[in-house]
Specification:
The complex is a heterotrimer of chains A (269), B (240) and C (230). Chain A is an alpha/beta fold and 269 residues long. Chain A is 43% helix and 25% strand. The longest helix of chain A is centred in the first third of the chain and has 13 residues. Chain B has 240 residues and is of the alpha/beta class. Classes of the chains: A alpha/beta (269), B alpha/beta (240), C mainly alpha (230). At the A-C interface, helix 1, helix 2, strand 2 and helix 9 of A face helix 2 and helix 5 of C.
Chain lengths: 269, 240, 230
């Protein structure tokens, strides 16, 4: 009876497992996946090496945590301070810059805070607060949310104590937050990739872009096989190497939505 | 051929449930031979007495003794038919085969013996019909076939025709008489006086959980020993 | 209403990707139901037929476990199957196997508790007769189980419904990996978080339709069988 149960258990698990192919697990972030980059990038790598890349896309904090537990072979996120902490803890082999994209400040065309066209995003934030113009925040401890909080700090504003009804802390993902901003005609910090593929723009348009502080740097790390013996280190390293190679960097640059490039490769810079 | 499992001896058994006394100090012996009828009004304790004898319930005090120490062997050699037969969701034949499988009859022999049993009760042509769609009388005949397929020495029947129409009653009684003639000891509870007379050789009259009288059938009907028994017979209308 | 129509149109554009998602959903949930039934139905029969000290407690606990939150089950299974956890060696995390494990744990109490109730009702009918025939213990429980098989369809369907509808467990242990562990519910969650509500609605409609079809088929089987077997 017990053996029958065990056999059935193994069979049932094997049936949908699509087992034993060459694959690696990469922990990355939701915004990266939702930009569509992986759908464009990974088939190139898979064709070249025959290695299937399985991406688990979660929040930045969770992605790094997956790496810490050894449940992924490679981590690709965009939160440099957190990545450096990950390295300091000994969970990664080496951190490489891969690419950057940027955030853009979205706002209504009517521009109640008068920030359109300015190159200084911190100043823009100050003006938004001064005008008490509606502003939607991700509020979900994502990479984008952290970037937004950094800018408030740079603007010299303690947003936690300074927010009023004009500041909407929604706790939502990028798509729903954009929906909310469109409905409320509010300002919002978004990553360019999601904005480009976002359809429900309403009266919103890009208000501020190009400020260096809006750059969002991506880093890739191989999870440390010394800490986690089962990490697929050869295949994982092959992926890391490819990402920072000329070919990989070109593939990243080739990814465009409506002719616009989303990610700017900068490995080795 | 081993010794008979009879006599069945009841040593001062009592049974109570929820504080209520249902069987109150019965001692008797059931011997091979004459068909025994357990007679009594509703609530006298006939059904419980049958279940105590068959072994479905244990007495609260006292002992039920058979002439066979091995419980497994005993189980096969005495069977019971209930007022409402319970059939499995399978064919009539499969129900009989099931009983034989439980009793440990070798697989190769089961179907043949089951078909013979169905023959005995006149259900051969319904062998492959789902048992649960059979009529009440047919199901009761099937229950008899199932019980009898193992050729028990003793067959307990607890008011087997109480729910059946007169034609079905006749069919069942015919089968019971055939089993009796073949040597099976019949112990049957009923409150149908005509049936008791047709099928029984001796009567055990039960009232309020006690045996009030035990006598040959004709003697009981002609001169019941207790006023209560006499009243019982006057109140019960025997079916023709 | 228009959003649903638009969504359905988008859904059928997905074609092969949709197929893969639907098939995986069915594979995972049906596997979980099969496993949970194999484990839970005999358990339910044993509970229905036997009397032992503490039986009441087991039944109450089983009933309570029906309300296990899927996301909690997912978290616990994740901790079990993570490389940092006790069963990490199996390498099951982020595979459909992990999803089957999580869903099986989730629906096992549902199937067992509902089946136990149905079987206990049936046992009242079969108890004396089976004991009279000499069937006891495991043999009686299995006979009861087989005979009551059509009334157990309801319990199994309840488990299937729960498995097909849940997202918390499969999201955490599966990781919603494109082409590997993405099922209907996690796809719906993803499209919703991307703000693509019409597509999410379309997928949701397909999911509901599938569950309806499965339930109708089971009901037809049940009715036909009842007419045939009585």
């Amino acid at each position: 009876m017990g053996l029958i149960c065990q056999t059935l258990l193994v069979l049932a698990l094997a049936v949908p497992a699509h087992a034993q192919e060459k694959f690696i697990t990469v922990a990355s972030t939701t915004s990266t996946e939702q930009s569509g980059l992986f759908k464009h990038l990974l088939p190139v790598f898979e064709r070249k090496t025959g290695i299937q890349v399985r991406v688990v896309a979660v929040g930045t904090g969770q992605a790094l945590d997956i790496g810490r537990r050894g449940d992924a072979d490679v981590v690709l996120v965009h939160a440099k301070p957190l990545e450096e902490k990950f390295m300091a803890e000994g969970h990664g082999v080496k951190r490489y810059d891969v690419m950057y994209n940027d955030f853009v400040l979205i706002g209504p065309r009517s521009d109640p805070a008068g920030v359109r066209g300015t190159k200084d995003v911190a100043a823009a934030f100050q003006r938004i607060r001064a005008a008490r113009a509606p502003f939607v925040s991700r509020g979900d401890r994502s990479g984008t949310h952290f970037a937004e909080l950094e800018i408030w700090k740079l603007a010299g504003i303690d947003i936690a104590s300074d927010k009023g009804p004009w500041y909407r802390d929604t706790g939502q993902g990028m798509g729903p937050a954009l929906n909310t901003a469109a409905a409320m005609n509010a300002y919002l910090l978004a990553d360019r990739g999601t904005w480009l593929s976002f359809k429900n723009r309403g009266d919103l348009a890009i208000a501020v872009e190009g400020d260096k502080r809006l750059y969002n740097q991506y880093g890739v790390m191989l999870v440390n096989p010394a800490r986690h013996a089962h990490v697929k280190k050869e295949m994982g390293q092959a992926f890391v190497d490819w990402l920072i190679s000329a070919e990989g960097q070109r593939a990243i640059a080739d990814y465009k939505i409506n002719g616009e490039q989303l990610f700017f490769p900068n490995a080795g810079s | 051929m081993s010794a008979s499992i009879l006599p069945l001896t009841l040593d001062n058994i009592s049974y109570s449930s929820n504080g209520q006394s249902i069987i109150d100090g019965i001692s008797l012996a059931i011997e091979a031979g004459p068909s025994t009828i357990i007679l009594g009004a509703n609530g006298a304790g006939k059904s419980v007495l049958m279940r105590l004898m068959h072994g479905l319930v244990a007495p609260t005090t006292g002992r039920v003794r058979w002439n066979e120490p091995d419980a497994a062997s005993l189980r096969r050699r005495q069977a019971m038919v209930f007022q409402r037969p319970v059939m499995l969701r399978r064919s009539a034949l499969a129900n009989v085969v099931y009983a034989m499988a439980v009793a440990g009859v070798p697989a190769a022999e089961r179907e043949a013996q089951a078909l013979t049993a169905l023959d005995e009760v006149g259900l051969r042509q319904l062998a492959h019909r789902p048992a649960r769609v059979l009529s009440g009388g047919e199901q009761q005949r099937l229950a008899l076939a199932r019980a009898w397929a193992l050729h028990p020495e003793v067959l307990f029947l607890d008011e087997p025709t109480a729910n059946l129409d007169p034609a079905a009653v006749r069919e069942i009684e015919t089968v019971i008489k055939a089993f009796d003639a073949a040597g099976t000891k019949i112990v049957m509870a009923t409150h149908n006086l005509g049936q008791a007379r047709r099928l029984g050789d001796e009567v055990i009259y039960l009232q309020a959980g006690r045996v009030m009288e035990r006598a040959p059938i004709e003697q009981f009907f002609a001169r019941p020993a207790t006023a209560d028994a006499a009243a019982f017979m006057k109140g019960e209308l025997p079916w023709a | 209403m228009g959003a649903i129509a638009e969504g359905l149109r988008r859904v059928f554009e997905l074609d092969s990707e949709l197929w893969r998602i639907v098939l995986l959903s069915l594979e995972v949930s049906l596997s979980a139901v099969l496993l949970a039934a194999l484990l839970g139905l005999p358990l339910a029969a044993a509970l229905a037929v036997n009397r032992f000290p503490g039986r009441r407690g087991v039944i109450v606990t089983l009933n309570a476990l029906m309300g296990l939150p899927p996301v909690v089950v997912g978290l616990l299974v994740y901790l079990l199957l993570s490389r940092a956890g006790p069963l990490g060696e199996l390498g099951l995390l982020f595979t459909p196997g992990a999803m089957v494990v999580a869903q099986t744990i989730l629906i096992l109490p549902i199937i067992a508790a509902l089946a136990r109730q149905a079987l206990e009702d049936a046992w009242r009918e079969y108890d004396e007769q089976l004991r009279s025939l000499g069937a006891r213990g495991m043999q009686a429980a299995l006979t009861l189980l087989w005979d009551a098989r059509f009334s157990l369809i309801t319990a199994v369907l309840a488990g299937l419904g729960r498995a097909a509808a849940e997202v918390g467990a499969v999201m955490i242990v599966g990781g919603n990996i494109d082409g590997v562990t993405r099922v209907m519910t996690t796809a719906i969650a993803l499209e919703t978080s991307k703000g693509d509500l019409p597509l999410a609605l379309g997928l949701g409609s397909v999911l509901i339709a599938i569950v309806l079809v499965l339930n109708s088929a089971a009901q037809l089987i049940k009715d036909a069988a009842q007419r045939r077997f009585g």
